[in-house]
Specification:
The complex is a heterodimer of chains A (about 375) and B (about 425). With about 375 residues, chain A is mainly alpha-helical. Chain A contains 14 helices and three strands. The chains are: A mainly alpha (about 375), B mainly alpha (about 425).
Chain lengths: ~375, ~425
Amino acid sequence: MATTEIVYPLAFPKSVAHKCEICGKTASRMCAKCRVTYYCSEEHQATDSNGIHDKICSTLATIRAKQPFLPSEEERRDRDREIREKKLRLIEVTRMIGERHVFQSRYDAAIPAALASLKLAIEVHGPRSVELIPSYLVLAEASLGLKQLNQCWEYLSQAQYTVLQQQDHAPPAITSQVARNMAQLSIARRDYDEAARHLANDIYDASLFYGTEHYKVAGGYFLLGKVFKLMNRLEVTESLYTQVTQMWYNHLRRLLQSRVVFSDMEAVLGKQDNDEDDEENTTNPSKLDLATEAEAHNTLQTLLAYRHETSHGPTTLQELNKIYHCFTILYFLARDYIQVRDSMRNIKDCSVREIDEDQQRILKFLDQLNRMKALMKRQQQEN
Amino acid sequence: MAETTVYRQKQANESSPKGQSGFYRNVILPSKTMKEKTKLPLNQIKNAAIAYEKQSTLRKEDTEKFRSSLQRQLSTDMLRNGYHHSFRELCAILAWQKDDRERLGAEHPLHRRPLLDAEPDKLRFLCQYLNKAEEAERRCQYSNMYHNYLELAAYFLKSDDRWLSDYFYEKSLTVAQTYSQFDPQLAAEAHLNVGLAYERRGDLMKALHSFIKYRELSEDFENLKTDASIQLTRLYMKLAQRRTDAQSLQYVVKAYEASAQTGDKKVENETSYKLGQAFLEHGDVDSALKYLHRYYNYCQDVNDDEGFGLASEALAICYQKKANVEKSTEYLTKYLQKVSDKEGDIQYARACSALGFIHNTLGQYDSSIQSLSKAYSISLANSHADLDRNRVLFGMAHGMKLRPFFNDHIDRKNTKELLQWKCTRHESFLTQPQP
């Protein structure tokens, strides 16, 4: 729980008038820990501390504190550089926290986090930079989640205007993300043609940037399938969803290969590493970061539901097996081993050799893990 | 050069006779006077308003069309309608072309032509037909899909983009093969197309495989079967021409077998003639005889004079190689008779030269000189292609005739006589016995 102090707005020096973090009205409360954050009411303070303030309280104190005078130019420059670096790190952290909140559907907690990241980014990069766009997008998604369509539209327009001002120098990754969110807004507004248009732009940019078979493009295809489903053109949805399944399948399998190969190597070399060390030592490509994991999870759930709805034809069984296998890999990479066994049982009648191979590997890894854990336990008992 | 105007430009702080400042004159006044000047009569204003209302507004997508490249436009159109396979195909083709160019280096002459994405007609055509193919695939109308790919391949063949056309022929083959249970004829045709493509590229072995497959698949379809056999024959002959060793003989044999299955007598017998020639080249006179006889009989049946002539010549050469003089002369005289009514004709010249050649080899120089002179004069008159050959043969005959006498003189070391002969080159000089 945050502690507050009542603040008298008239008690400040002449040009200073503190504004609330969330809404911007004149502030009458102050956070007692850092003493640099102000709020207008208790509710706003509560939302802010739930969302982000608890995590960044101390850092904000150092950043926003009134800096004493330093005699030499060099020292001042060093200090400015340090503060700037701290701000940059904080931008990243706050944005990731905001994204995590969005994925876990806690939209009201996401907004303060994203706002904080936006403010810091404006301070560091300026009000018209491309760096602000991801923060705007998080805000847009959060407001979409809260069903505030107009607010979402405002944020997205701001993002799009920034993109336009760059005059085609914006990296395609960002333009594709903007277009994807605009499409989501259009879907919420039931304007399916607009959504299709935005998604077309999104897929084109993402394909140009990542390559046509990359899993990041799958998000665009997935939304496009959703649009066509809502427009009642199911054969298009069918072909699009198959494509999405295929892309995620390939990507997850590749992650699995690299991860299991690594741990095989460890076993061969005879190292008796703990499970935790294994995780840290894995190289970047084999890590599944939180955002991708949540996205994959949502996508696969929807695909599964769709397949169960429209089950006809012999190809459906193959597709279902693919989806279950994707789930298996996902749980495995997230170290949720109980779920792994459950979802492996769901796959029936599978005639694809690759899935069998992967399952063998996973089972072998799990066995090794159990053995190592038993070994560690015994060592601990001996000690 | 500094800009100069005809009239003096007034200073900023100079005021006009009316007492107005520069600011008023330069900024405020022009906008007012402009309005006064450009006020249209009421009628025109009304018309302008109506015209403006009738104008359709540009939608967002139309403005985007002005801003983006053609590739982007076409791709987004395709994606908006859900044709994502076509989009990926397009991306793949463009990337492939760029990689190819990079691989071959910047100055390869083949790649002076513009990149595909610089040619709007081709791109549009490509996208249109890719969309159609995808639509057909969605509806499981695989023959439609096949035909669409075929159209694409034909179009790119016409515009001389061989690489694309080959790619689409192969695609149509895969489609036809995977869905061959519906229509096996398509699979056979697809093999034919792929074989032709390989042949154009110069890759004869692969073309051979495709044609063989074509032949196998077209067992049940009569017209396709004959066509397949004809293609096979042609290809085997090409292969045989390329190689000059024993392999080529095998190819010609295979060509003959294939031609036997065409059911077309003409092709079969022509191949038989070629086979005979090949055997002759490799020294196998008997088998050559067999095939050449066949061709000979056929030509007689069909009254093909030129073929008849060729056959007779070849037969004569065979018999001559077997040292069977009468038979060869017999054939040649028959040939002469046949063509004797066309005296000045090339056939006649050929017949005479063939006869002369035989006589030459047999040592009967007089008769050979006779026939060869005839051949020579005819070809001289017609300035025929065989002129050189006849010339050579004629000269040879004369030379061969005089050879023993020449040797004789050399043996006797009659250099003076020889020199005299060389001055006049008259025959009688040499043949006359020494006084």
